[in-house]
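Per-residue structure
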Amino acid sequence: MAKRRKIAAPSAAELSAIEEAFRRETRTRPQAGMAPIAQVAAETARVQAVGDPEARVQMAHDIADAKQFRAAQADGRLIVDLPLSAITPDALVRDRTVIDPQEMEELKASIRAHGLRLPIEVFSRSEGSTAYALLSGYRRLRAFTELHAETGEEKYRLIPTLIRDPEALGGGFVAMVEENEIRAALSHYERGRISVIAAQRGGFANTEAAVAALFHAASKAKRSKIRSFALIFEELGDLLAHAEGLKERDGLRLAAALRAGAAPGLRRALEAASAASAEAEWAVMAPVVAASEKAAVPSKVGRPKSAARTVLATHELADGARLRVERDGPDYIIRVQGEGVDADVITHMAEHLKNLLS
């Protein structure tokens, strides 16, 4: 069994040695009577200078500005200058298919004189050769690209840009279409075309859903027209060279013919011809459309018109009465008129006629 160790109180000399060692190894704190946590707080307050009131106000403003900056960056409200080489312009199929050269020159002249008044919009992407893809502002990006190629000036190498989250805007296609609807109205064919492509790319369940989402602010009649032109793009888009110039009335007639089954005839007509303009292209399709419309006219039904009645005989009777015999096709009609003619007279006549024919 182990011996128990007796614990004895240290002597005065030993206690003095212990206290001396403790003082050497422990930093002397002011206000030694304070609790340790209070001493730490006091030392921290001394290290961090309070500063004057103006400095504290400026610090508060800087903190608020930093928060606003981060919020603007997160919401896509911060305009940054991006190099043209960092942006892919055609990651999304564009809704506008034709750019007027004169309008492009006017836009470039405006940029030369006043700079870009409205930034383009892009979204970041993880795939592809560039960090960003264009969301809206195709003409502005193209104008900057042409100006940089023409002048070589550094100021056209970078373009003012907003970095957006396309999903927060309701999808990339919706954002692109809404931007162009506001700035420059699309043709019915361009609207129908982008609706079909958006559905084909998996953005929407079908073309009907794409039209409803992309043009949700349009009237019911306008969406109906867009669906008609979407049908034209689906059936004939690969053969039409001047579809943007198709008049609204002609387009609606063309869509009706397609619904009636005229697609094969229209495709044959377009394949056999080479139209140089929208008018010439419609002239190729118009006969097929007219034939479809004529075939769709329902034939009139009902009782056929009878041949003109023929009066065989007319007799003046007593008391101003008159008797007339007519032929109506295979039938004969006897008409008796006059003040003295009543039901009894007609019944008596019928009895005599019955006896005559029996």
Observations:
- The CA atoms of residues 46 and 156 lie 53 Å apart.
